[in-house]
Amino acid sequence: MNQQNDSHRARKRFGQNFLHDQQVIQRIVSSLRAKPGDRIVEIGPGLGALTQPLIDIVGKIDVVEIDRDLVARLQQHYSPEVMTIHSHDALKFDFHTLVTTGEKLRIIGNLPYNISTPLLFHLMEQLDVVQDIHCMLQKEVVERMAAKPGDSAYGRLSIMLQYHCDVVKLFNVGPGAFHPAPKVDSAVARLTPHTTKPTHVNDEKIFSKVVNQAFSQRRKTLRNCLKTLLSAEQIESCNIDPTARPETLSLSDFAKLSNITVDSPDISK
Ligand code: SAM
Question: What is the pTM of this model?
Answer without folding.
Answer: 0.94
